[in-house]
């Protein structure tokens, strides 16, 4: 073989090596890209799961801390709670209930818009102890302060206080955003010493395992459930300029706080628009499988597939129908939150809304089932409030509400409150003598 032949052969071998090395690099690049795609897909699935998860699948949101430090924090909070219960001296206007406002406050006051006259929206809600776990998802979805009144009594107090301590210690979103207020009957004052009975509370264990759940519904107790007293305490304890009164088993659409405050900023320059006398209506829905759509488009898709429907669609459609859901559905989807349209109040409409924190309080005579929310919305109407439906905002309730799924004394309680509502409407005529509006 001549010199030229050997040179040619060496050149071909080098070319072959370069070619094989190039193939190896290409395969390696494709493998890296494939791994990246797999990684991103996995992350998206995890994020979707987290965003659509209900309280039962919220364990990944729980803080995984040191058991000893958790116990020390729980014991510290327990001492604060028990000292306040022992020193309670504030009662409601009827003299029937003890009230402890801010029995536990958020860790980081100011971070989520808390503070006197802060330009933000506080979710205002109330609950019995057996629904407290709903705060996990609500606090994660809501980027603002939450004010919650918790009703308890001596037979329920240990469960209630332990639940508050566990949630406050183990969930950062609750610790940073939620203000707790405790209400209990004067003749049913808690007489428990939790300081010596807290060793089983640990953030390493899920809620249902570390605390024995109560099975009773709100109305299945001999003690009447004072909805409107609880609402008023949570409302008066809010420190922001606006409040959003909802039920604790509901979740608002994403970024509602930021988008709403931008709407307020734009509307402030409109001299013909009275922000302080407007109730901004947030259309409410029920979710069959407790998945929370991220935006209006996904909500409309879920509505089309019948996984979501308007709130009270089966149990009291007339109570929500004036929201004009079909009209809301047809509003053009924009990136900017705004008023879609205004509606007139009609009996027995009881929408969920955002309004000034100076909104009229709830009538505390209404207890148990029936007319407790509508009475306050009725007063807004008589007081001259306008009802403006927001175009993109919405609220989702956990599960479908169905007929026949109520407690036994529901009809009796509703009839009692119906009579009180008639009296209430007549009293509004005296309270607002110059108003041309009536309920």
TrEMBL record:
Required cofactor(s): Mn(2+)
Catalyses which reaction(s): 3-O-[beta-D-Xyl-(1->4)-Rib-ol-P-Rib-ol-P-3-beta-D-GalNAc-(1->3)-beta-D-GlcNAc-(1->4)-(O-6-P-alpha-D-Man)]-Thr-[protein] + UDP-alpha-D-glucuronate = 3-O-[beta-D-GlcA-(1->3)-beta-D-Xyl-(1->4)-Rib-ol-P-Rib-ol-P-3-beta-D-GalNAc-(1->3)-beta-D-GlcNAc-(1->4)-(O-6-P-alpha-D-Man)]-Thr-[protein] + UDP + H(+)
Pathway(s) annotated for this protein in UniProt: Protein modification; protein glycosylation
One Pfam family recorded for the sequence: Glyco_transf_49
Domain of life, per lineage: Eukaryota
Membrane topology value: Single-pass type II membrane protein
Compartments, as annotated in UniProt: Golgi apparatus membrane
Ranges that cross the membrane: 21-42
InterPro entries: B4GAT1, Nucleotide-diphossugar_trans
Keywords: Glycoprotein, Glycosyltransferase, Golgi apparatus, Manganese, Membrane, Metal-binding, Signal-anchor, Transferase, Transmembrane, Transmembrane helix
Family to which the UniProt record says this protein belongs: Belongs to the glycosyltransferase 49 family.
Stated name of the protein: Beta-1,4-glucuronyltransferase 1
Organism of origin: Tegillarca granosa
């Amino acid at each position: 073989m001549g010199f030229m032949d050997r040179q040619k052969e060496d050149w071909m071998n080098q070319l072959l090596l370069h070619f094989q090395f190039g193939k190896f690099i290409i395969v390696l690049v494709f493998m890296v890209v494939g791994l990246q795609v797999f990684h991103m897909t996995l992350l998206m699935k995890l994020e979707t799961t987290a965003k659509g998860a209900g309280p039962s699948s919220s364990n990944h949101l729980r803080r995984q801390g040191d058991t000893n430090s958790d116990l020390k924090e729980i014991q510290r909070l327990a001492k604060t709670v028990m000292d306040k219960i022992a020193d309670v001296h504030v009662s409601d206007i009827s003299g029937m209930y003890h009230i402890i406002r801010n029995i536990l406050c958020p860790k980081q006051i100011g971070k989520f818009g808390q503070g006197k006259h802060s330009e933000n929206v506080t979710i205002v809600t109330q609950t019995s102890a057996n629904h407290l776990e709903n705060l996990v998802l609500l606090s994660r979805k809501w980027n603002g302060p939450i004010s919650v009144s918790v009703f308890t009594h001596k037979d329920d107090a240990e469960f209630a206080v332990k639940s508050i301590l566990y949630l406050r210690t183990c969930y950062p979103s609750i610790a940073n955003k939620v203000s707790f207020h405790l209400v209990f009957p004067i003749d049913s004052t808690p007489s428990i010493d939790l300081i010596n009975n807290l060793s089983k509370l640990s953030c390493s264990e899920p809620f249902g395992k570390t605390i024995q759940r109560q099975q009773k519904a709100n109305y299945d107790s001999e003690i009447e459930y004072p909805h409107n007293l609880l609402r008023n305490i949570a409302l008066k304890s809010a420190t922001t300029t606006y409040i959003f009164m909802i039920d604790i088993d509901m979740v608002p659409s994403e970024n509602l706080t930021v988008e709403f405050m931008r709407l307020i900023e734009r509307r402030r320059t409109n001299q013909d628009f009275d922000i302080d006398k407007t109730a901004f209506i947030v259309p409410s829905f029920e979710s069959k499988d407790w998945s929370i759509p991220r935006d209006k488009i996904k909500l409309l898709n879920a509505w089309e597939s019948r996984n979501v429907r308007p709130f009270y669609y089966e149990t009291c459609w007339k109570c929500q129908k004036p929201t004009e859901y079909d009209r809301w559905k047809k509003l053009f989807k924009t990136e900017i939150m705004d008023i879609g349209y205004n509606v007139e109040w009609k009996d027995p409409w009881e929408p969920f809304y955002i309004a000034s924190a100076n909104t009229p309080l709830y009538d505390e005579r209404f207890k148990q089932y029936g007319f407790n929310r509508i009475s306050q919305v009725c007063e807004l109407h008589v007081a001259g409030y306008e009802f403006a439906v927001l175009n993109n905002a919405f609220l989702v309730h956990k599960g479908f509400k169905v007929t026949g799924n109520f407690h036994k004394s529901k009809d009796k309680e509703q009839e009692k409150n119906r009579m009180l509502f008639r009296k209430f409407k007549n009293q509004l005529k005296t309270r607002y003598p110059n108003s041309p509006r009536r309920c």
